[in-house]
Structure formats: structure tokens, C-alpha cells
Specification:
This protein is of the alpha/beta class. The protein has 2 domains: 192 residues, Rossmann fold (3-Layer(aba) Sandwich), CATH 3.40.50.720; 173 residues, Rossmann fold. The protein is globular, with a radius of gyration of 21 Å. The protein starts with a strand and ends with a helix. It binds 1,4-dihydronicotinamide adenine dinucleotide, pyruvic acid (PYR) and magnesium ion (MG).
């Protein structure tokens, strides 16, 4: 198969769909790889490194989109990218369609087959292609909170870990999955007081074991949420209902009862965010204030640490990308992980939570692929 890797064009997005090492694996398996010039600049991989790995380096994204049978990216296609997609093409990348009707319509109109990293699902309900970036974003969320809490940034001026004799910050993490666990690990490691809210009790048990009592866990009810959020210095939004728009768990009214200068980091913003007042921001201008609360809502947090993130992402995507390259749509039909990753195929929405969120008719992947 001919694989194409355009340079990422989202604001301050420095990751790359394939590292030179991943290119080498595709080439070793008999595929050809087209890479846009400078696609790897953000991870210090120059065109020479890609050529050495066996890629053909081309001058423009247009050449990549014209010739490739499968496009491998990181972020959801931007408008100038989705207009270049076509019916016989496979797109393999993060999509986050539920909060994005324009992108969904664009992909439907292109006729392409779009497989979303974030809904590729293992037999236990785990999300193996989301997990590595959730690990990164969870860890970064505490750095973001620490920065925004500084007085010079508009925050309360509290140091996460405090110092001997002065109490540390209270960090509340809503959602104890991958993002939440890694946020809790960083925050407790820095000495903050950490509480994790989740509505899945087995997960709370696992966290209790994992942290040996160094964090508190609470079952997520409206009452628990209010008590924790009102007393928090920083709140991390880390919930997920796979593929669906995030539930709005903290309202604008609730912000009025929070501590002035407290910070919210809405990691779930890529699925629409779990705070009523969240709107996507970029690394160029990451924060804004509502009701005296600093909001950090960057939808591509791992893009800030592209070296770590690109390698972590490629480790996870490589076997699936190779399977698609080997067998095309047959791999998507046969492999249950990839079947659950299929979000769009030839003008149909094939992921139920996306269809439900946006009001489209859901067509099961098996039916869409058989048509
Ligand atoms: N902004 C960014 O750059 C990035 C954002 N993310 C996003 O972070 C979010 C979380 O991802 P993961 O941790 O991987 O998901 P996950 O599936 O591992 O964890 C989600 C957790 O939320 C819990 N949950 C669901 N509804 C809840 C509710 N109403 N109240 C309390 N808990 C609830 C679930 O029980 C689960 O434990 C996703 O939206 C993901 O796309 C991930 C990576 C980067
Ligand atoms: C998961 C995601 O949205 C990201 O890594 O940017
Ligand atoms: Mg997005």
C-alpha cells in the first residue's frame, strides 16, 4: 500500500504521524511511504532520516494526499486537509467527531474511510491508541495547573506541594481513567492533596490499591462533586464516555462558589469538555478566565512534548497501521479493534456514540463495509 504522512498543521502541533523508525517497518513490510518535507522537524527527524528509513520525501501536502492510499496523521484533519480526501482513501488519525459537526460533514462528503485512534477498542473496553496520549496529557495537566495557579498567571498563588508548615494545594481529578491516574500520580508526587472522583467503583478500588492511601477516592455524585470542587485549588477534567460528547459536570453557577483564582484544566475538551464554560484553546493562548476561575482547555496537549508523544503514539499505532496496510478494508472488517475504530465509511457514520451525539443515522461497520 502507498502510505502518506503530511506535516501536522494544527496550531503548535509538533507531533508526526510516523517516526522514521515506523517508516522503516512499513517499508520492510513491502509498502511505500510518502512523507511531506519537514514533517518530522518537531521531533528533530529531518528529511534525511526519513529517506534513510526508505521514505520518499515530497514538497507539499497536496502530493501526499494525491498519491497515498492511506493517510496516517496525528490530529483531526483541518479544513484544508479534509477537502483533499477522497473515496478510495483511508484516514488513520485522532478524529474526536462528536463535538465537531463540521469535520464530520466534511469527512462524510469526501467519501473516505476514517478510522479514529480514540475509538479503537480492545476486548476489555480499553482504548489502546488513546491511552499513550492520555498518559502524556494526564501528566501535563498538573504542569498546566501549577503554571496557571501562579499569581502572575491570574491564579490563587498557591504552590502545589506547599512547604513545611504551610498546607499544599487541593487537586480534584474528575474521572479516574488513564488521564486521571497520571494526573493523580504527578500531583501526589509533587505533594498536593489529591482526590479522584469516578462513578465506577471497581476503578476507585484499583486507584486506592495503586496509591496505597496517598490519594482519596470518592464516588461521583452531584453532592460529592460540589463539595470537592468548591474546596479545590485545581480541578482536572478527565472523564470519557468513548466516542460521545463529554457530560457537563461542572456548571457556570458552580464556578461562582469556587475559590477565586482556582484553576480548571479540561483535558476532556477534545470530546467537548466536562465544564459548561470550557471552550477549546491552543498552546499559543492556552488560558482564559470565567467567574474568576482560570480555564486551561488545550485540545492537543501532547503536541507540546512531541518527542515523547510521537514515539509513544507510534508504538501503539504501528501494529494497527501495518494491518491496514497489509489487508486494506478487510483488516478493518476482520479485526475487532479496528472495526470499533471505524467512524466514517463512504458517507456513513459507523460509530454509534458519534451518530447519536450529532443526530446522524448509525450504520454498523459490518453493514457499511459490506455495502
Ligand atoms: N486535551 C488533550 O490533549 C487530550 C485529551 N484526552 C481526553 O481525555 C479524556 C479522558 O481520557 P482517558 O483518561 O483516556 O479515558 P478513560 O476511559 O481511561 O477514563 C475516563 C474515566 O471517566 C470516568 N467517567 C465517565 N463518566 C463519568 C462521570 N459522569 N463522572 C465521573 N467519572 C466519569 C470513567 O469511569 C473512566 O474511569 C478523553 O476525552 C480523551 O480524549 C486524552 C489525551 C489528550
Ligand atoms: C488525544 C488527542 O486529542 C491528542 O493527543 O491530541
Ligand atoms: Mg480536536
Amino acid at each position: 500500500m502507498r502510505i502518506g504522512v503530511p506535516k501536522e498543521i494544527k496550531v503548535h502541533e509538533y507531533r508526526v504521524g510516523l517516526t522514521p523508525g515506523a517508516v522503516r517497518e512499513y517499508v520492510a513490510a513491502g509498502h511505500s511511504v510518502l512523507v511531506e518535507t519537514n514533517a518530522g522537524a518537531g521531533i528533530g527527524a529531518d528529511d534525511g532520516a526519513y529517506r534513510q528509513a526508505g521514505a520518499v520525501v515530497v514538497d507539499t501536502a497536496a502530493e501526499v494526499f494525491r498519491h497515498a492510499e492511506m493517510i496516517v496523521k496525528v490530529k483531526e484533519p483541518q479544513p484544508s486537509e479534509w477537502v483533499q480526501l477522497r473515496e478510495d482513501q483511508i484516514l488513520f488519525t485522532y478524529l474526536h467527531l462528536a463535538p465537531d459537526p463540521e469535520l464530520t460533514k466534511g469527512l462524510l462528503g469526501s467519501g473516505c474511510t476514517a478510522i479514529a485512534y480514540e475509538t479503537v477498542t480492545d476486548p476489555n473496553g480499553g482504548l489502546p491508541l488513546l491511552a499513550p496520549m492520555s498518559e502524556v496529557a494526564g501528566r501535563l495537566s498538573i504542569e498546566a495547573a501549577a503554571n496557571a495557579l501562579k499569581r502572575s498567571a491570574g491564579g490563587r498563588g498557591i504552590l502545589l506541594g506547599g512547604v513545611p508548615g504551610v498546607q499544599p494545594a487541593r487537586v480534584v481529578v474528575i474521572g479516574g481513567g488513564v488521564v486521571g491516574t497520571h494526573a493523580a500520580r504527578m500531583a501526589s508526587g509533587l505533594g498536593a492533596e489529591v482526590t479522584v472522583l469516578d462513578r465506577y467503583i471497581p476503578r476507585l478500588r484499583e486507584l486506592d490499591e495503586l496509591f496505597h492511601g496517598r490519594i482519596r477516592t470518592r464516588f461521583s455524585t452531584i453532592e460529592a462533586m460540589e463539595q470537592e470542587v468548591f474546596a479545590a485549588d485545581a480541578v482536572i477534567g478527565a472523564v470519557l464516555v468513548p466516542g460521545a460528547s463529554a457530560p457537563k459536570l461542572v456548571t457556570r453557577e458552580m464556578l461562582k462558589r469556587m475559590r477565586p483564582g482556582a484553576v480548571i484544566v479540561d483535558v476532556a475538551i477534545d470530546q467537548g469538555g466536562c465544564f459548561e464554560t470550557s471552550r477549546p484553546t491552543t498552546h499559543a493562548d492556552p488560558t482564559y478566565e470565567v467567574e474568576g476561575i482560570i480555564h486551561y482547555c488545550v485540545a492537543n496537549m501532547p503536541g507540546a512534548v512531541p518527542l515523547t508523544s510521537s514515539y509513544a503514539l507510534n508504538n501503539a499505532t504501528l501494529p494497527f497501521g501495518l494491518a491496514i496496510a497489509a489487508d486494506g478494508l478487510a483488516a478493518v472488517l476482520d479485526n475487532p479493534y479496528l472495526r470499533s475504530g471505524l467512524n466514517i465509511h463512504r458517507g456513513r457514520v459507523t460509530y454509534k456514540a458519534v451518530a447519536d451525539s450529532l443526530g446522524f443515522t448509525f450504520v454498523p461497520p459490518e453493514d457499511a463495509l459490506a455495502a
